[in-house]
Amino acid sequence: MSAPSHRRSPSRRLLALAGVAALAAAGLAVVPLTTGAGAAPADLAHSVLPAGDGWAALAAGTSGGQAADSAHTFTVSTRAQLAKALKAGPAGAPRIIQVKGVIDANTDDAGKALGCADYAAGTGYSLSAYLKAYAPATWGRGKVPSGTQEKARAAAQQRQAARVVLAVPSRTTIVGVPGSGAAITGGSLQVKNADNVIVRNLGLTDTRDCFPQWDPTDGSTGNWNSAYDALTVRGSTHVWADHNTFGDGPHPDRTNPSYFGREYQVHDGALDITNASDLVTVEYNRFADHDKTMLIGSSDKDTKLRVTLHHNVFQGIVQRAPLARVGRIHLYDNYYATAPLDGYTHSYSINSRAGAQVVAQNNYWALSGDRKASQLLSGDGTGSVAGSGNLVDGTVTDLVAAYNAAHSSKKIKTTVNWTPELTAGLEPAAGLPAKLGRKAGAGVLTATGGTP
Ligand code: CA
Ligand code: CA
């Protein structure tokens, strides 16, 4: 890895850290000096979000760990190495973590694979006992599970969480080493109350919860709920997720059993952006084989949530691509294929609710014969979807008009209270299927941070 161009003296370093703390206390983005907007990146690990590239480019932009010194520049190929690099002090130090090859998050510190039975061992949890304790015929449907088996389930879940949840601090770049098939399987990267984070060129797949919780009060029929998103952005600002691949990998939902008449869902979100997160750009990712793909906002009372999604591929996705609440959300040049894939059948693509101000522009849908243009949106009647230039099988289509014509109530509003300005790479939709087939997802970026 390249060394920093010069070393700071201790006094300059302390001064710089004090400045960082002051800026952080003021809630401002902390961005190190860079080679300048638009300059060619020296290499993938040190590259920063280009100027104008979506909401994460606002103000000081997003540079992640670009200013990391050599002591905070890591190459990791095991879970233990990754966890150590994420925790290396001092807090707030910029860090670059290069992932080489596949890291299985469900492993112990010696690298031994851990299964659900390993996490449950010693907790007293067993699925059969849990099912017996909370069967609707005996437990009823009026209250969430509590008592011995629920405590045991929570304890087992904690043991898995201690392995698979990986907290990402401020001023961090995590990037897959080109050509290494870099991926984190079974993990949950959590960007929580952090600022200035970059995640690029990584597979983030097969994230699953060994211990779903039964909630009979969730909806009219109850639901099994799971804990882990592959990537969670929570209460965080200036986050850039670029050229990653998300999916359920070897554990598709069709292999989930059903208990109490409901799917035993082991997956949560692929990439959820919630709890007053702001200034997020999600681009050139590939989302495949997943149900609840992307929440923007976790409740109708969430705030901020300025998010840009562009040049992403959504294929074999059931719903929430995204489910948008509250925020000013720009969706441009994304590619959606609605054909069923590995048991995942399309429900809708974009849900605008809780007053969301969505601009959907120049996106492309490949519509399968089982779906209609009126089934691409969803909403609660308070969300907006503006924008033009969207194509369905190559034909310009007014998605909102198609949706509203098919619904007698909860119609989607067509005007928004803002105009997108950070629109790098905005282009007509016609070329997207071919282009994104080559350029989206992990494993495409080269060592210089570009695409072939
Ligand atoms: Ca989630
Ligand atoms: Ca499902």
On the 0 to 100 scale, the average pLDDT is 92
The overall number of domains is 1
Proportion of residues in extended strands: 25-35%
- In the CATH hierarchy, the architecture is 3 Solenoid
The hetero compounds bound to this protein are: calcium ion
Q: What would CATH call the homologous superfamily?
A: Single-stranded right-handed beta-helix, Pectin lyase-like
**Large-scale geometry:** globular
Radius of gyration from CA coordinates: 22 Å
Order of strands across the main sheet: 1-2-5-8-13-18-21-24-27-30
Could you tell me the number of beta strands? 32
What is the number of helical segments per DSSP (H or I, 4+ residues)?
A: 8
Q: End-to-end span in angstroms?
A: 22 Å
CATH topology: Pectate Lyase C-like
Q: Which structural class matches the secondary elements? A: alpha/beta
Summarize the amount of helix as a percent range: 10-25%
Low-pLDDT segments, ≥5 res: 1-38
CATH structural class = Mainly Beta
Largest sheet: 10 strands, parallel
Structural account:
It is a single chain. The chain is α/β, with parallel strands linked by helices. It contains eight helices and 32 strands. The chain has a single domain, classed as Single-stranded right-handed beta-helix, Pectin lyase-like (Pectate Lyase C-like, 3 Solenoid). The strands form six sheets. A ten-stranded parallel beta sheet has the order 1-2-5-8-13-18-21-24-27-30, with helices on one face. Strands 3-6-9-14-19-22-25-28-31-32 form a ten-stranded mixed beta sheet, covered by helices on one side. It is 16% helix and 27% strand. Bound molecules: calcium ion (2 copies).
